[in-house]
Amino acid sequence: MGELTYKPISGGNTSEEQTETNVYIPAEVRKKTKITTLYVTDLPFTANLAIKANLPVVGYKGICDQYSDTLYILEPDFAQFLQQKKIHTVVLLLNSDTVHPYFTVGEDKDLSKPLYNIFNAVKKFSNLINSFDQDITFIYSNLKHHLFYEGLKTIDDVGEKHPKLFKSISNYRAKSNAFLDSINISELSTRNLYNHLKLKNVNDFYSYHADRLKRYDFTFRSVNYFYDGDKIEKINYIDTKLYMRVGPYYYKKILMLNPHDELEEVLEPWPIGEITRDYGAEFIKQIPRYDSFTNKPSNTGEYQRTFTLNRNGITSEQYNLYNPVDWEPSSGEWPYIEMFLKHIFSAKNVDGEGMYEWGLDYMTHTYVRPKQRLPVVALVSEARNTGKTTYLDFNKLLYSANITILDNSRFNPKFTSHFAGKLI
């Protein structure tokens, strides 16, 4: 294999130097001919005192974030380093706030999500190392949580106040360690990490963080709870707003990228079995229920997301597929849009009449009377860069989710499903 390409960094390091690469290997570590145990921490690098204590520590960007691009494949330079130094064990070193809930009274956020993010990131990093070399032992560790309450978060923070930290890091296998909580992922699997992060159940989570949560409402795994002084009481589920039952079928609101790399909210059929698997049977009871879909477009203040129909003692709840627009018209000058529309509707009809006024009528009717049948507008030009796509984008701004743009890939036997219920 070729020589490593890292820029030598003597002494400390700057954030600017670290951002040049996804893996930071201090010069002192790189000089070592063989490393049995390699310690890895996230970037920006905060283990300079460990380097001075002769511990081989490197920085690897994104190992605490499951969405990091660096966790899709092991960084080639890092893999080369593992091989060159004949490393037998990789120890992940995370900060003391790893299990901290960052709870704020009255804030509606799920306290389990940052922990799930770390859990999945560690799992992905472990799998990358295992795929590269099954003989490498992977150890998870984080500085003990109580250090965070002392104002000590990073390895440098703790090492400056407690020089014995570096001996504890070397003794990461010890059952009783004053500074580290460690788990041998290679031997015990990630299930032990799951429990360590207090993700198993709400009682474990609350007991560990009771000094922070007290008797305040808090959200854990999409459920809102509070402690009544005797036991944990469930208030309600917060993720139910993402689901609905229409007739006998369940749907989930999700975001998807359309062929133009734009995010669109869509209703995706979601099996009841999967919902139960994710949240439990009680969750199902709180999902909003409707009898059928409807499509009642309105771009004015009369818009309603749901409708209730009553007749002959029968009541039906309907869910409106049309989406509200997020703007209101107001009077004023509009020179750029006016100039653009005059350009778009600059042609003449078969009677020689200009199309600009017709275009304004068409756009007004579309907004004010969206249920009215209107002619089809076809923008045709052999030349490129004449405004056709810009006109589509302009309408997309006006009607957002109520417009769909089709391309050739969507013209299949079921292509009407892509625009059924859309205004444009």
List the helices and strands and how they pair.
Elements: H1 15-18, E1 23-24, H2 27-30, E2 37-41, H3 48-52, E3 57-60, H4 76-84, E4 89-94, H5 113-132, E5 137-143, H6 146-149, H7 155-161, H8 165-170, E6 180-184, H9 185-188, H10 191-196, H11 202-208, H12 210-213, E7 218-220, E8 223-227, E9 232-237, E10 243-246, E11 249-257, E12 263-269, H13 272-279, H14 281-285, E13 289-290, E14 292-294, E15 306-311, E16 314-320, H15 335-344, H16 356-368, H17 388-399
Parallel strand pairs: 2-3, 2-4, 4-5, 10-13, 14-16
Antiparallel strand pairs: 1-3, 5-6, 7-8, 8-9, 10-11, 11-12, 15-16
Structural features, described:
This protein has 424 residues and is of the alpha/beta class. Helix content is 30%, strand content 19%. The strands form 4 sheets. The protein has a 6-stranded mixed beta sheet. Strands 12-11-10-13 form a 4-stranded mixed beta sheet, with no helix packed on it. Strands 7-8-9 form a 3-stranded antiparallel beta sheet, with helices on one face. The relative contact order is 0.07.
Give a quick set of tags describing it.
424 residues, alpha/beta, 4-stranded mixed sheet, 17 helices, 30% helix, extended, disordered N terminus
